Structure formats: C-alpha cells, structure tokens
Amino acid sequence: MIWKPGRKIPILRPMNPKVDAFLRGAKRWQKEMAALRQIPLACGLAEELKWGHPCYTFEGRNVVLIHGFKEYCGLLFFKGVLLKDPRKILVRQTENVQSARQARFTSVREVAGRAAALRAYVRQAIELEKSGAKVPHKKTSDYPVPEEFQKVMKQQPAARAAFQALTPGRQRGYLFYFSGAKQAKTRESRIAKHLPRILKGKGLDD
User: Which residues contact 97 (CB under 8 A, 6 or more apart)?
Assistant: First the structure.
C-alpha cells in the first residue's frame, strides 16, 4: 500500500482510463470487478489493460488480473501456485494450468468479505516478485502425446514438422488441450479442428 508521508490515509494508485472504459462496457459482474479493482490499487500496483482485461503490475511484471466468466468473476494471481493460501480461497482454473490461481466471486458482498485477505495475498505476491521467485514449469517432453495425435503426425510429415516448429509454450497448449478430452472421439475431433492452425504455425489461442 502506498502511504503519504505523515498521514495514515492510504493513497490509491491512479486509475487507468482504459480500465474505466472496460468496466463501463462490462455486461456482467461490473460492480464486483469494480470492487476487486480497489484491492491491487490499494497495494500500490500499476493498473494496465492487457489481453482485454484489467491487469496489475509491479515494476512491469504481471501480478494479478481481473477477469469475468459466465458463472463468476475472479482475481487471478499469475504466480498463485507459489502463494500461501491459509484461507483456502485460491482455485486452479483447469488441471493444465501450472502457475496461475484464481479467487472467485459472485457478489460484491463476497469481495468485501475477503478484501483484507486478498490484500494480504497481493502483498505476498508482490514480495514474490521482489524476490525473483520463478514457477518451475514442466517441459513439453514431460507430457504424453495422445495416441490420436501421434497417428496424425506419423501419417502427415508436414503436421509433425509444423508442430515441432512451434514454440514450446504453443506445443504444451495443444498437448494439454488434446489430452484433456476423456474420449478418443473427442480427442480426434479436437485434433482435426486445430490441425490447420498448427500447419499455419499458430498456437491454440493465437
């Protein structure tokens, strides 16, 4: 939190006009996200708009991000896996997410009830950035390649070459997504749908 010398009143970081516009245009969770916004600002983080969402940074490094979904809105901690979570409020969005963790909300009352805990978590996240802590990510080779995708790459050398030419992050994204389907038919459908993107050198979310 930023403090003005000689006073006990916390000073919020300046609000970014782009985030003002984002909140005005939000169709869901407008009040909840506005309440969440105050938490990282009160902890002294800079406010930006990244990937179309309010993002809060410390010396240029991403710390937390506000985003909304159909069922909830959330405060996402980029290195949440490294945080101590005594209140048990952090959620892993999917099994493929290695680093980030979310705190989820469906009402302003929930945000208010956890505001103090969230500020403590944000301050903890800032200390992690100051310390230079890194999240140990698994390598692409640590994840199995679905049999259905192995078959495609064996039958189509161009697909194999295109996949190998992708960045490790893009490769992991596809493997996570393909392997996430429990049924073979679903895996085959996902592979067929995204093969053109792989051949174009694009990642899953590009």
Answer: none
Alpha carbon distance 18, 39 (integer Å): 18
**What is residue 12's predicted lDDT score, i.e. its pLDDT?**
62
Question: Whose CA is closest to 84, among 115, 116, 128?
Answer: 128
Q: Which residues contact 179 (CB under 8 A, 6 or more apart)?
A: 143, 144, 146, 187
Count of residues in the chain: 206
Segment 161-199, tens digit of pLDDT: 999 999 887 888 888 889 878 899 999 999 999 999 999
Which residue in this structure is represented by tokens 């245009």? 25
In 3D space, the residue among 178, 175, 184, 173 whose CA is nearest the CA of residue 206 turns out to be 173
Average pLDDT over residues 117-132: 96
Per DSSP, what are the bridge partners of residue 47? 56
**195 or 139: which leads in pLDDT:** 195
Give the burial class of 14: count Cβ atoms within 10 A of its Cβ; 0-12 exposed, 13-18 middle, 19 or more buried.
exposed
Q: How many CB atoms lie within 10 A of CB 163?
A: 21
- What phi-psi label fits residue 165: left (phi over 0), alpha (psi between -120 and 50 degrees) or beta? alpha
Entry pTM = 0.68
As a whole number of angstroms, the distance between CA 39 and CA 204 comes to 32
